[in-house]
Amino acid sequence: MADDTKLQTEDPESPPAAAPPASPPARPVPAAAAHARPAPAPRPPAAPIPDLAGKTTTAASAGGAAARTAAAPAAKPATAATRDPDDTSPLLTRRAWIGLAWGAFSAASAAALAATGRFMFPNVLNEPPQQFKAGFPNEYGIGVDERWKDKFGVWLVRTTEDVAQNASGFYAIISTCTHLGCTPNYLSAENKFKCPCHGSGFRLTGINFEGPAPRPLERARVVLADDGQILVDKSRHFQYELGQWADPEAFLKV
């Protein structure tokens, strides 16, 4: 049996068994490559740096520097977005300045229009009347009566003998100093009129005797009205230095 097997194996008509393929010859390794260091392994990514809020972020994360850079323009004032590129005013925008200018112009125009309309109406002077009735003669005693000074600017004086007409009766002295127009005061203790502005003094007759007043006080027209009352008329003045105190209407004889 063994021989038969060997014969079958060595049968010349059977094809020979295939030999295993030969391996390629190994390439020679250079001497420099034999001593080269192996390539280093790749480094792991850097650990993220915690931000000020205590959260771990990276530059590209939602809360990192990229987000802060993108949010920076939103922190600017809202007015800056509405300004023109060449509008560099630090206080107001161009529209605000234009509105302010128009408001000032409108106010000035209204004031000018009101001033112009004022000229359409005449001025009214609230002056006291030039004539008034001072009551009946028997209502007065001898001396100076001041009841008409504040309202009409007149002293009504009753005397037993007038310096100009040598008679008893009434004369009306206008209470205006002949120096600079101040209003003198009647000083009953000194029996005179005294100007508080510059010290001019006048006797009860109205004649000046001290101070800078250049001439006596003026008298007003005084007559009896139709009803028997004393009528004083300031529209007519009588001056002593001109001899006008001797006029019949400058003195009311009683």
What's this model, at a glance?
It contains six helices and 13 strands. Mean pLDDT is 78; it is low at 1-18. The strands form three sheets. Strands 3, 4, 5, 6, 11, 12 and 13 form a seven-stranded antiparallel β-sheet that branches. A four-stranded antiparallel β-sheet has the order 7-8-9-10, with no helix packed on it.
What does it look like?
It is a single chain. The protein is of the alpha+beta class. The protein has a domain at 131-253: Rieske Iron-sulfur Protein, CATH 2.102.10. The chain is 21% helix and 20% strand. The protein has 6 helices and 13 strands. The strands form 3 sheets. Strands 3, 4, 5, 6, 11, 12 and 13 form a 7-stranded antiparallel beta sheet that branches. Strand 1 and strand 2 (56-57) form a beta hairpin. It is rod-shaped. Mean pLDDT is 78; it is low at 1-18.
List keywords for this structure.
single chain, alpha+beta, Rieske Iron-sulfur Protein, 254 residues, 21% helix, 13 strands, 6 helices
